[in-house]
Amino acid sequence: MSDTFSSQTHAQGPSAPFKVLRVALPSPLRRLFDYLPAHPTPTCGWQPGLRVRVPFGRREVIGIVAELAYGSELPRTQLKSISEVLDDAPLPGDWQWLCHFAARYYQHSLGDTMQLAMPARLRQGHPMAGRTQTLWLPVETHDVTQLQRAPKQAELYALLRQHPHGLPGRAISAHGFTRDQLLALQKKGFAHSQEVILTAPQPASGNLLASPSLPLNREQATALAVLHEKLDGYHPCLLEGVTGSGKTEIYLQLIEALAAKGKQSLVLVPEIGLTPQTLARFRSRFRVPVVALHSGLTDPERLDVWEAAANGRALVIIGTRSAIFTPLANPGAIIVDEEHDGSYKQHDGLRYHARDLAVARAHYHNIPLLLGSATPSFESLQQALAGAYRHLRLTQRPSRHPPAKLELIDLRHQRRQGGLLPGAIRAIKSTLKAGKQVLIFINRRGFAPTLACHGCGWIAECNQCDSRMTLHRQPSLLACHHCDSRRALPDACPDCGSGDLRALGSGTERTEETLQGLFPNVTVHRIDRDSTRRKDSFEQLLKEIQRGEPCLLVGTQMLAKGHHLPHVTLVVVVNADGGLYAADFRALEHSAQLLEQVAGRAGRAAHPGRVLVQTLHPDDPHLGQLAEHGYSALARNLLEERRIAKLPPFCFMALLRFESPREEAALALAQQAAQALRQWLKAANLPVRCLGPVPAPMERRQNRYHIHIMLAADKRSQRHAAANWLVQWLEANREARKVRWSIDIDPQSLA
Ligand code: ADP
Ligand code: ZN
Ligand code: ZN
Question: 87 lies in which domain range?
Answer without folding.
Answer: 19-123
